[in-house]
Amino acid sequence: MDLIIVESPTKANTFNRILNSKEYFVFATMGHIRDLPKSKTGIDFTNFAPNYLLIKNKKKVIDQLKDLKKKADKIIIATDPDREGESIAYHTAFILGFIEENWPDFKLKHKDRMQRIVFHEITKHALEHALKNPESLRSDLIKSQQARRILDRIVGYELSPLLWSKMGKNWLSAGRVQTVALRLIVEREKEIRAFTPEEYFQIYGFFKKGVEIKAKLIKKDDKDIEISGKLELFDGKYQFTKTWINKSNYQEIINALNDDKYQITEIKESITTRTPPPPYTTSLLQQDAFNRFGYSSKMTMKLAQDLYEQGLITYHRTDSFNMSADFLPKIKQFIVDNFGENYTVSTPRFYKTKSKSAQEAHEAIRPTDLTKKSESIEGLTRSHQRLYDMIFNRAVSTQMQEAKIKQIKVDIAGQKKYLFESDYQQVVFDGFLRLSNPKYVEENSQDVRLTKNDVLDLINFESVASATKPPPRYNEASLIKSLEERGIGRPSTYAPIISLIQEKFYTEKENKSFLPTKLGETISDYLSSSFPQLFDLNFTAKMEDSLDNIAAGEENVIDVLKNFYSPFKVELEKTQEDTKKIDIEEKIDEKCPQCASNLTVRYSRFGKFLGCSGFPKCRFTKPFSQFVDGKICPKCGGKIVIRHTRRKKRFYGCENYPKCDFSAWKL
User: Fold this and answer.
1) Active-site residue among 24, 90, 262, 315?
2) Residue 440 a catalytic site member
3) pTM score, two decimals?
């Protein structure tokens, strides 16, 4: 009997369901079994060799593995196909005595007994093909993963103690990519604070000719109502638009508009073609799941992991838009069967992958079986079903015909030289939108029948007061998009980065958007000024490229680490000479009930709390209460506050706890 080694019990169960249990025994390692030590850096800086140790709570797993090896004819390592999966494969092979380490290289021993199989979906066909075509461990992928681990360990273990000494908090952490993500959020907040809004008005007219027409005032005497300006921001140019209508002139304009007669002066029609978006990559999946359902990146990855391990979707950590040539005909047949021949493309549609790290051998995220509908799959939660349907519809729609949309622009003019414009869209052929956005098709299928020179009845005018807006705060979707566009981080890193900056209380969420805390802003400013090269966006992106080049066998791992560490060490030693402390306390307008000194907002590893500024003479503290606007306790009428569990999970409670025990995960 052959031993197959995977990472998780769910994956093992799926293997057992697919394969012949008499030929194979499947065992799960429960993740990594070897790692760098927690108590020290674990790096030999003479040649950057990592000092890997067995993870303490994995002794039982390791003993079981060694015992199973003795009984097995052959060892088949079937961990995930990415760098992290290859790393688990490497450490598993080492534990079982198949590897002789010679950093950064290694030598395989007893090759006849060990195999590595690689696949991108857990299906019968994929597993049988992989078992018939075994590979060896991919040394370049292993080196790339180890290089990332070493780089992150150096930054984390060298800079974190620096933060501890500066701020007196031994739970703070710095990270090579984490701090850059935080910096984006902090710099965006500074842009928002520096922005000065300008008030303006927009005027809409409501007219009638059989149907009601809403039109926007766009010109007066051939002069455009709207004007544009540009803002130079931290990460590019943002354009804002406003009108020259203000408080002093809008009533005069409204009076003139009311005393006028209107007719249609021009109708412009054009047909545009809308092409379906590409299949999902990791980042696109995370962005869409957040925008459509409010799922965090961490939740999306957990749901996708479950779907993958149950054999329902292809591997969920990918940069590629590629889909298997074997699967494309199945999509075509599905479209013909469910929508008709005229809804499918004559030749497969392919999408060009922008990511430098994407490999065509990898696939985009897609379903593995088009006969499986979410509602018929046992064991799926509503959240799993939503994500599966999203992936299913996106993959199928890529091979559907483009949608044909008629764009209709209607000009409405008065005798006093005011010009209104109304835009309409009419779906001429729904194409892929029939599957991906049927609601849009339904709402835009009405034929608009208007004629040039039609005289219109005026219903009324509406003036909308507004103000120019600063660039929006980052939310999870826009932060992931920004990181990806800059080449910072990779599919496996987005969710952990976003989780960490929240768990460390460097950011808070307000209306699902990131708001930096005083702690987060202070750390970001200090690190980006003290280590300008390390936390430069371009430098971080180039380092990601180097890691990709190591994986492709195009750069030497020792050279990359040496080129990083030499300048970093100089900056670190220079910064360590400065012993000045950094104040992260936030002063508030509230007195200490014990000594009448001012209270300040402080931070612990469990979050914010209020403490006396007279510390250590006065040790008064009390919880920091963040109230939820407009919400009251249904039990006692008190205010609702945001609280966190010890594991940093957010929930809601009553301000009068423990007298009132109301709590809820959602409001």
Assistant:
1) 315
2) no
3) 0.89
